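User: I'm putting together notes for a lab meeting next week and I want to include a structural view of one of the chains we've been expressing. I don't have a solved structure, so I'd like a prediction I can at least talk through. The sequence is below, exactly as it appears in our construct file.
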Amino acid sequence: MIAYFKKIPFLFVAVSPFFLNSCASVFQDDDYTAYFGGEIINPNSENVYLCRNNEIIDTIKLDKNNRFFKKYDSLTPGMYTFKHEPEYQYIYFDKNDSLMIRLNTHEFDNSLTFCGRGDQKNNFLIELFLKNENDRNASFDIYDNDLKTFEKQIAAYHKEKKAFYERRKEDIEWNEDFDIYAKTMLDMPYLAQKEIYPLAHKFRTSEDICRHLPKNYYDFRKKIDFNDEKLTHFAPFVRYLTSMMNNVSCREGGTDKSLENNIKKLEVADSIFTNQKVKNAVLNNIAFMYMLEDQNMMNNNKFLEKYFKLSTDKEKQKEIKKIAEATQTMSPGKRLRNINLIDSNDNKLDFGSVINKNTVVYFWTSEAKSHLEAAHKRASELKAKYPNWDFIAINIDDSNEAWKTALKRHGLNGLELHATNFKEIKDKWVITKIHRAMLINADGTIKNAFVSLFDANFENYLK
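Assistant: Thanks for the context. Below is the predicted structure for the 463-residue chain, given as structure tokens.
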């Protein structure tokens, strides 16, 4: 069990007198003054971003001591996020809250603490988040179990967290708006596990349990408000929706055909979401994920035709079109568009110049340590098994220094390159998820630009 957060005193409060004064102030009904500040240990960049609904509303620079402080004359109460690339976390502001954060980027979520007016609610959120992450990381094997055992286990996890939620709700006495987020963070991971179970059980045990589920197995869906705009960009809710959408075809027999599956997801989204804003957000998520998994151009056109018919979000439609156009430049036989790369000696390289034989290209960031280690271990094993293939690791950190530090810390001495402009590699090579890998022919042409080192059938490409 994760211990309760201890309140860590901030050693730099003397530099923030407005923050201290605000804690004792009496605010007027029409006064929405709020304060946000903190300290970032081992920062990755010089900025902290305050965001709402995935849009940056303020960019705050760190000072020479890696601290920041900002007074807002008017800040609408509600859920926000703060970002220190590439990580982010939630922060909830009530009227006149004065919140200070402290975190170490080497352990971003685990080190995060809040203090000041409004700190209790936010410390509750991060602790519940960590409990969920701890359960998720420790629960992969539960999907091997029979349905009765599985449901008993996840119910026990949920019961424990619900008791924690109820204690803190009583102690803090938070308002109904905050409770929407607290309850969602409590319930959605639990319900997502129920959505995941039929497919994960089949994948892990080869037993197709879908047709044998009780008729009332999905009754919990009836209690979910799918059209609450406040939850449109809230990660626990979005993850649940992703799990549900992946599961929609299960009771109908299922299919391994990506196009049919994803068109079905669009149709389900159209049927259950009546709020167009929420519907657009879900349709966009389905489209983004699909465009990165199925690179059959005819399939893409069929999918996009359906997506454009249902979506009214013109801006996101432009982004989807941009991804579709970029993927067309990465079909087999074509050459990758050039991007800015450097080696560990800061030498600028042309990508084509480092291709001498069949090559696997994979990606990593120092902020995803488990993937960093797993990807390099997998590449090393494959290199020993298939010496006729080269393996190039490309780091996508914003900071050149962070990349070099990670190289030394992890003893990485293979063919390591750094992409100096993440937006460029994202746009030209469609790198939107770290698990992507690419297969390049010895002549520099593309063999397959959309694979994963951890695909069960990956070695077939190397034979």
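A couple of points you could mention at the meeting. Confidence is low (pLDDT under 50) at residues 1-24. The chain has three domains: 28-115, 128-328, 341-461.

User: Perfect, that's what I needed.
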